[in-house]
Amino acid sequence: QVQLVESGGGLVQPGGSLRLSCASSGSIFSMNVMGWYRQAPGKQRLLVAVISSGVNTKYADSVKGRFTISRDNAKNTVYLQMNSLNSEDTSVYYCYAVGRDGSEYWGQGTQVTVSS
Prior knowledge:
Elements (H helix, E strand, L loop, with lengths): L3 E4 L2 E3 L5 E7 L6 E9 L5 E8 L4 E3 L7 E6 L4 E6 L8 E9 L4 E3 L3 E5 L2
Parallel strand pairs: 2-11
Antiparallel strand pairs: 1-3, 3-8, 4-5, 4-9, 5-6, 7-8, 9-10, 9-11
């Protein structure tokens, strides 16, 4: 069973930056896709960014040009660099992975709050 552990969330002022990390207990080589979703209170969980094993990336329109997803296979870690944050980015951010057998994994989530 793969475990995903997020870190790096917190309180940041509008216009600021944060970098989220997602550490996998298993090799991310075995993952077809890894990514980040977010969920604001009372709203659906939405895709933020994903990265394939071939390092192709996809972003939600709302974060294009501001967020960057990357992976470090040696550290079994996926990152989400978030710049130019605004209040609409306030959410719980979840790490997500899909194994080669189709199994899905979720982290426990990390809170990001953008506020002055």
